[in-house]
What we know:
Elements: H1 4-20, H2 51-63, E1 70-71, H3 73-78, E2 82-83, E3 90-98, E4 110-120, E5 124-125, H4 147-156, E6 159-162, E7 168-170, E8 175-178, H5 187-201, H6 219-239, H7 249-262, H8 266-281
Amino acid sequence: xxxxxxxxxxxxxxxxxxxxxxxxxxxxxxxxxxxxxxxxxxxxxxxxxxxxxxxxxxxxxxxxxxxxxxxxxxxxxxxxxxxxxxxxxxxxxxxxxxxxxxxxxxxxxxxxxxxxxxxxxxxxxxxxxxxxxxxxxxxxxxxxxxxxxxxxxxxxxxxxxxxxxxxxxxxxxxxxxxxxxxxxxxxxxxxxxxxxxxxxxxxxxxxxxxxxxxxxxxxxxxxxxxxxxxxxxxxxxxxxxxxxxxxxxxxxxxxxxxxxxxxxxxxxxxxxxxxxxxxxxxxxxxxxx
Length: 289
């Protein structure tokens, strides 16, 4: 059985490999039938969380899967289906704690992280029809203003000023600056940028209390940028919009790689913090508002 350290390292090595190849693994290019959910789903319909979202987005992107539901080999068999011969599974992890048998019940529980393989439904034959998404409608022309996203942004209460030539969150003033809308190539670029900065905004002391003091080039800054980018991808998925990564790719990736190569747990920590951001911002969605 692999150790926790080995599992962290396998995940980190996968992320590093894709970053070095120029692919940001938390980006889910939209294709085909992802109507059911942009966030990867378990066989039960429950959404995956944290680093598992990143790993499954990456695997789906590289394999070109249209579907976004995943299950174990045993789950497929229990449904009367069969993973096709030669198909490779994708690593996901399960977190938990246990108390060794030789300890008292009130002793400190020991955390564990267990890795296991899941398969996309496109790798499996004879699944029930409910695992097949309906065909997408012919897409309409792009709409410059997406009302559901605009409403979500308004409900967060974040102070946003449009104008100028840069996008940033200013912790001291607790506000966000975004370039004029006309400077963006599309609504995808606009909303990806706004949600990235709202992710930073969520880290203020009065909200989630992350460390926002890092200077550009520092490990703390690189980690916060990684959290913001992954969480923006998560929130875009929740809102049903495509996510486009921010620019400055080469510089940011260089900083991320430095952090990941020094600490094999960094990307899992970043994904967990990004999930916390998405969970916090979900309270402002129309489904709960």
